């Protein structure tokens, strides 16, 4: 592997692991949406307000945006380098004799996630930061109502569920790929890494999948 490609892969692996960590925190925050509505509204809006006001969290957010951009840009660069070098769309790890479906389709899965993120940022992030949201009883922006209203539409729930399935496959392969790139993958720990990768990917995917389904079936007026 050329040195530059190795550097690109290192950037992908470190930003990818940081994004994996963000997903745990984001899921834990979003699980508040499953509390009884009277409690969830104030809790969720207060939590969103807390995140947007804290300087340390603001810095972490900028690192997050940079990581997202770097992860996507370097994925594109690596894919182009590989196409040029081998005429193949994505070079997968040759140490495993049979590559899995998701390892060959990281580009497609990543593109689905990118489209999801554009919609996600437009509907929640942009509306929260720049929209004119009504306030709740405690004077915080009522993001809770925006999220609940969006998941009362069947098509929106399906869009999210399909994106989460793509995210799950992407995480599963990304986890192993990152552990190899960072030199954490050792024969002795192969099974342990596999188990941790599966548990992480399943927990994140099912956790996110639960939220829109729960809201659609329980909070639909
Ligand atoms: C049911 C699932 C989800 C819900 C209800 C949800 C909800 C939200 C909301 C309400 C915001 C705006 C909060 C704010 O800006 O303060 C947000 C921001 C964000 N979401 Fe999600 N999200 C979900 C899944 C995901 C997934 C799967 C990803 C990544 C693949 C993701 C990535 C992000 C990012 C990167 C931000 C911007 C965070 C920041 O500004 O610091 N979200 N999400």
Automatic annotation (TrEMBL):
Keyword Transmembrane tagged: yes
GO cellular component annotations of the record: membrane
Protein name: Succinate dehydrogenase / fumarate reductase cytochrome b subunit
Native source organism of the sequence: Pedobacter alluvionis
Keywords: Membrane, Transmembrane, Transmembrane helix
Superkingdom of origin: Bacteria
CDD domains registered for this protein in UniProt: SQR_TypeB_2_TM
TM stretches of this protein: 7-29, 59-83, 104-121, 154-176, 197-217
């Amino acid at each position: 592997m050329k040195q530059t490609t190795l550097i690109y892969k290192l950037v992908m692996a470190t930003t990818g692991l940081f994004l994996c960590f963000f997903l745990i925190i984001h899921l834990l925050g979003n699980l508040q949406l499953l509390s009884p509505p009277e409690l969830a509204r104030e809790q969720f809006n207060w939590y969103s307000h807390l995140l947007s006001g804290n300087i340390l969290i603001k810095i972490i957010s900028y690192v997050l945006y940079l990581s997202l951009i770097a992860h996507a840009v370097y994925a594109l660069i690596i894919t182009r380098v590989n196409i040029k070098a081998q005429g193949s769309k994505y070079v997968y790890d040759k140490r495993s004799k049979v590559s899995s479906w998701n390892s060959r389709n990281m580009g497609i899965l990543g593109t689905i996630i990118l489209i999801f993120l554009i919609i996600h940022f437009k509907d929640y992030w942009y509306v929260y930061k720049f929209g004119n949201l009504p306030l709740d009883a405690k004077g915080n922006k009522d993001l809770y109502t925006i999220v609940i209203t969006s998941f009362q539409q069947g098509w929106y729930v399906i869009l999210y569920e399909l994106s989460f399935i793509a995210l799950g496959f992407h995480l599963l392969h990304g986890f192993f790929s990152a552990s190899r790139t960072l030199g954490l993958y050792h024969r002795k720990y192969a099974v342990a890494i596999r188990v941790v990768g599966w548990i992480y990917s399943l927990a994140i995917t099912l956790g996110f999948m639960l939220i829109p389904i729960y809201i659609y079936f329980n909070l639909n007026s």
